[in-house]
Design goal:
Blueprint (H helix, E strand, L loop, with lengths): L2 H20 L9 H9 L4 H9 L6 H13 L3 H26 L3 H13 L1 H7 L5 H23 L5 H16 L5 H20 L3 H5 L2 H17 L3 H13 L10 H10 L12 H21 L7 H4 L3 H35 L10 H16 L4 H26 L6 H12 L6 E3 L2 H15 L6 E3 L18 E2 L11 E7 L12 E10 L7 E9 L1
Parallel strand pairs: 1-2, 1-4, 2-3
Antiparallel strand pairs: 4-6, 5-6
Helix pairs in contact: 1-5, 1-6, 2-21, 5-6, 5-7, 5-8, 6-18, 6-19, 8-9, 8-10, 8-12, 8-18, 9-12, 10-17, 14-15, 15-17, 15-18, 17-18, 20-21
């Protein structure tokens, strides 16, 4: 495939991916995590970083989002468009990494195609969160590392520049999400594998290797750049160990993650009956792919025809094998580390935290498909996989029924279209409060500020770091409320329930389902004095 053809196809893919990610982008209601992002960027930059330090995430995504909001506003469309834009950048980066890794534009285009169609990638491009930014930096840092290793082993002069760029990008990735540490651990293991393979465990040769010292220098640069945040990270980690919401790993937690990666669903995959075997197929397929990447790498059949001399062919063979190992490690090591750490302390194993690894599974799949022989079988397999990805994404969209689940958006619109000017609006849960506040401000010009009914301080994972004194009032205020009526928003999501109100009579109760099961329903009450 010629370079011009590949770039034209990539551009068409990006246009297509942008269109499907933007379709009804604001139809799904804002939910707690996204509303947290919106509320946090309302503060000044120093206060935003200070409040983020009291939460459990690093600050880079919020800094970028605040800058985006300053230019494009903070509407739901703007917030999610930032994630869509980053998702497109990640697709382009997947092409660049895969094409370079296997020295094959065909692999790059297929990897970008799978990224564009994958329901899991689309789902997280909808969210006003840091996931697509993390995917982009994960792919960029991996590409820089691969170039660093190749140029260093071939003794080219650009190695130190690549080392600096990798160190900066690795630090940036760690400032986006803490699961970046698992990816960076995979990178370190990759460099070690290269050194062991090249020196055959001879320690003296390892210590004398230029690759070792350049890689170490780039790692030190990343640590230096990250050093100001390390005390905050340690404090946040202790906070998570003391109290966090992620449940322990269950018997099907890990297979279900692989199932959702390849067969996106909002529900729980089947675990009984004949469908049980089907639920286990995705994890078995991915494990087989990892084994192929580790032990089955082969040089491209085109390489001997395109290269002059056996020495250069050998270089390509080594390059593509080492690229396969980098992809395998970047896809697998974060899983193993997340699982291991979750068994030692507070569980950190959650599907969406592992979205950064998904890109490498898709890239590995693309490389495998392009190597299928004979050509008719390869073309058939690629066509079937692309159609399957497209069908599963459409199925997922139909399954979540966005149009029939208005959630917090529908609840807020109902209240502000029906309430009188003197009727206060209360919310009984922090997990829906920020979403209601967002819609009140963005869609109804802040006609009135909703108030959270709560006793005591909210937990750090329930919005505590972004609540102000003006946001919260004790439920006892209802006993002395001067008005004769008020509106109340409840949620049954996140383990919540409807607030029991004494001394008032509910004259209206309207239920607004949210899209995903853990978000459950948002419920609107209008109360009048008895």
């Amino acid at each position: 495939m010629k370079r011009g053809q590949a770039l034209a196809l990539l551009l068409l893919l990006l246009l297509f991916a942008g269109a499907i990610r933007s379709y009804e982008l604001t139809a799904r209601s804002l939910w707690f995590d996204e509303a947290f992002s919106w509320r946090l960027i309302q503060f000044s930059l120093p206060e935003m970083i200070a409040r983020d330090a009291a939460d459990v995430h690093p600050p880079l995504y919020y800094i970028f989002l605040k800058g985006w909001g300053a230019v494009f506003g903070t509407s739901l469309l703007s917030l999610r468009s930032f994630s869509v834009t980053l998702g497109l950048a990640a697709i382009a980066m997947a092409y660049g990494f895969a094409a370079s890794a296997w020295r094959s534009r065909a692999v790059g285009i297929l990897a970008a195609t799978l990224m564009a169609l994958a329901g899991w990638q689309i789902q997280y491009a909808w969210e006003a969160r840091m996931y697509t930014l993390g995917i982009f930096f994960t792919l960029l840092s991996s590409w820089l590392l691969l170039q660093l290793v190749r140029t260093t082993l071939q003794r080219q002069a650009a190695s130190w520049l690549l080392a600096v760029l990798y160190g900066i990008t690795a630090a940036a990735l760690a400032y986006v999400h803490y699961f970046a540490f698992f990816t960076l651990a995979a990178h370190a293991l990759f460099v070690l594998m290269i050194l062991v393979r090249r020196t055959r465990w001879r320690l003296g040769e390892m210590l004398g290797s230029q690759l070792l010292w350049i890689a170490a220098a780039s790692g030190i640069l990343a640590v230096v750049l990250y050093a100001p945040w390390i005390p905050v990270f340690l404090a946040q980690n202790q906070q998570v160990q003391d109290s966090y919401w992620v449940p322990p790993i269950g018997g099907w937690s890990i297979p279900d993650t692989f199932y959702r990666m390849l067969i996106p669903t909002s529900g729980i995959p089947p675990h009984t009956g004949p469908e049980l075997v089907f639920s286990a197929l995705p994890i078995l397929a991915v494990l087989a792919l990892w084994i192929w990447l580790l032990v089955g790498c082969k040089k491209r059949s085109e390489s001997p025809l395109a290269l002059k001399g056996k020495a250069q062919a050998s270089v390509v063979h080594e390059d593509t094998c080492e690229a396969a190992w980098l992809v395998m490690l970047s896809a697998s090591v974060p899983f193993f580390l997340a699982i291991g750490i979750s068994f030692i302390g507070q569980s950190l194993y959650q599907d969406r935290f592992l979205v950064f690894t998904h890109a490498f599974i898709l890239i590995g799949l693309a490389a495998f498909l392009v190597r299928i022989r004979p050509i008719w079988l390869r073309r058939t397999a690629i066509t079937v996989v692309i159609l399957l990805f497209a069908v599963l994404s459409v199925r997922f969209w139909n399954e979540i029924e966005v149009r029939n689940k208005p959630g917090a958006a529908g609840a807020t619109a109902h209240i502000f279209e029906q309430r009188t000017d003197d009727e206060p609006v209360f919310v009984s849960s922090a997990f829906v409060y920020f979403a209601v506040e967002h819609y009140a401000h963005e869609d109804f010009d802040g006609a009135t500020d909703p108030t959270l009914l709560a006793e005591g301080a909210a937990l750090h994972f329930a919005g505590g770091p972004i609540l102000t004194d003006a946001d919260v009032i004790s439920p006892a205020v209802l006993d002395t409320l001067p008005q004769d009526s008020f509106w109340l928003v409840d949620t049954t999501g996140f383990g919540g329930s409807e607030l029991e109100v004494v001394g008032w009579r509910s004259v209206e109760r309207t239920v607004y389902p949210e899209v995903f099961a853990h978000q459950a329903d948002v419920i609107v009450h209008r109360y009048v004095r008895q």
